[in-house]
Specification:
Number of helices of chain A: 13
Largest interface: A-B, 57 and 51 residues
CATH superfamily of the largest domain in chain B: MetI-like
Distance between the termini of chain A: 63 Å
Largest sheet of chain B: 2 strands, antiparallel
Strand content of chain B: under 5%
CATH architecture of the largest domain in chain B: Orthogonal Bundle
Number of helices of chain B: 16
Number of strands of chain A: 14
CATH topology of the largest domain in chain B: MetI-like fold
CATH class of the largest domain in chain B: Mainly Alpha
CATH class of the largest domain in chain A: Alpha Beta
Structural class of chain A: alpha/beta
Radius of gyration of chain B: 30 Å
Oligomer: heterodimer
CATH topology of the largest domain in chain A: D-Maltodextrin-Binding Protein, domain 2
Strand content of chain A: 15-25%
CATH superfamily of the largest domain in chain A: Periplasmic binding protein-like II
Largest sheet of chain A: 5 strands, mixed
Number of domains of chain B: 2
Distance between the termini of chain B: 66 Å
Shape of chain A: globular
CATH architecture of the largest domain in chain A: 3-Layer(aba) Sandwich
Order of helices and strands of chain A: HHEEEHEHEHEEEEHEHEHEEEHHHHH
Number of strands of chain B: 2
Amino acid sequence: MKKSVFLGTLAATTMLAGIAAAQDGSTLAAIKARGELICGTNTGLTGFGAPDANGNYQGFDVALCKAVAAAVLGDATKVKYVPTTGETRFTALASGEVDLLVRNSTWTYSRDTSLAFDFVAVNYYDGQGFMVKKDLGVSSAKELDGATVCIQTGTTTELNLADYFKANNMTYTPVTVADDSEGQRQYLAGACDAYTTDASGLAASRATMADAENHIILPEIISKEPLGPVVRHGDNNWGDIVRWSFYSLLVAEEKGITAANIGEVATTSTDPEVKRLLGLEGDMGPMMGLDNEWAKRAIAASGNYGEIFEANIGSATPIGLARGLNALWTQGGLQYAPPVR
Amino acid sequence: MAVSAKSFVRADMLAPKAPPVAQSGAVKWMRENLFSSPFNTILTVLGALVIYWLVASALPWWMNSVWNANSLTECRDIVTAAAGEGATGACWAMVRERWHQFIFGFYPSHLYWRPTVAFGLLFVALAPVLFPAAPRALLWVTGLYPFVAFWLLWGGSLWTPILGLFGFVVLAAVYRALNGRLGVPLATGCGIVAAVLFWMFLDVPLLNVLSSILSLAIEQVDSDQFGGFLLAIVIGVTAISMSLPLGILLALGRQSDMLIVKTLSVGFIEFIRGVPLITLLFTASLLLQYFLPPNTTFDLILRVIILVTLFAAAYIAEVIRGGLAALPRGQYEAADGLGLDYWQAQRHIILPQALKIAIPGIVSTFIGLFKDTTLVAFVGLMDPLKGITQVVRADINWKGIYWEPYIFVGAIFFLFCFGMSRYSMYLERRLKTDHR
């Protein structure tokens, strides 16, 4: 009796509270009323999203959360970060616990369709690669026939690996590990010849090894891993806001607008697209329910796409990732924003 | 006859000689314990080799420990400089830089005194429960402690815990008023209904009124800022203290003659024991969100505490059932013969004996529960072992560090669990009244 009454009341009160909140269905309105963007993030991935020693979230993915918060609420610090694991991330988004998921999640067909999500953009083009010890004498993944490979269990990388070896008519022995730190440990201890995970993760692991010069990352990238921000089906306006918050960062890089010079550009620029983006011309913001300075704030939050890349994972950081596919389309990459018009 | 100067009888005793080398001291001990037979000799030699190998491989790592560095690379450089190329060393500089996250999670650093005070008060509150020598007046501290600790940890208005406490006062008042007429279970039920009605309908309006008169608020801290051992202890202590009474009720319910009570208790216990804790944690984290309407914020830590409590209660119930089963039938009959009613018999005769028998089982369930709190990492909470460790490793400065965070967290867990284990042995000795 004790318990059922307690749970009953609990359920009843939360239902009442929930119904009151659910009546206003728009995510944007809910965020504005709350005064805080709830951003689903990684529990800790080097360079992409993790709390620092003071508990402040930093990283490439986190910077996008900040840009969206700046665009919507006018304050890049008004973000509540909810750490999600590989298992809880999609439920957290689907159940409305988070407004937006920026957690290096790969855009796949089934996630986009049957999970009822929208991947609104790709903020990082990743792909699965291999790391081997130099003295193994291997220079291509095609030479890995018969190798033992350390692989994180229960991930798409495990399936990609099987596909790749099958397609190239090779065999391998998997050594399954639970997470990246264990994978790195096993690889260094010599339990496997090669370690495979996303290329960005390999670069970060290699950067922190005591003998980085003795390890090489093989040139083959065996899978497509487009990572990007995810929103729920059913609120396209909110999806637009996230998408264009990201694109505004790309356009900013294309037009040479940085966090430092944005004030100056806003007063001196004669480029009509820049003027539209920064809210000096036209009436762009209200088209998606924001004011005209939304993009200006989004860019000012952590700089343009290139600045965010360089500050968190770029060649100046210990991780040292090259822009590669993530260069702007004008520089041979895939990052391409539709026109602001 | 004069006594000859040359006596054949000794007038003075010889000083006792030391026993033969082979029959005393370390040699005797080693002969008896280590080399008593060829087989034992072989085992001893093998054991010594293993110990030597362990020490030889781990000792340099411990000896080369580095305490002052800003990154793992710096640690390695210091070790190389001090011990030569290829040497390995522990990098405790990580602990030095990040210990506060292992202990407090992301709790705001200027408020660290609040969990610290709450932790200190925990021992004051536990003293009268754990040690009979402590003054009985401290029991009031024990009763008030949950509310004080809640206020200290989460902050906000002081009126929230006061009104929460007042609900229990309502419960007690209703129980007292009705106990004589309706008996224990019904009076308790009415009390709970009254308290719940109070919390549902009067709590919030009263809170608003009182806060507007006198705010009494301290800085609020959200649940998502909890982490590390703060989180493990909050979940552990709450679940431990709530699962014991719940477990006792379930164990009694399982022994009951009343069909519905018995069926519900058995069903609950068997269901909870039949599923792994991780399943329940995922239920707390994922499934409950689907049941609740969108945009409901029902604190994840609260959800986890409830599910962990239910999980522990089912195990405690079975442990206590073991204690009840060990009591001779005569004890129950003696209680009946004295004319005690059911609750009196349980309180004065059955439970004191049954709980005493069950102490080792109860404590080991508690120890297991406390360690199981690290499983909350799987639902995205920042437990010390995996959650915080992952955060630390995600920092490019400390990426690649492996043993140090595990050893640090393991050592702290060991202190807690060893303390609990020692206390249970003390309790067993103190309560021992028979002559087994």
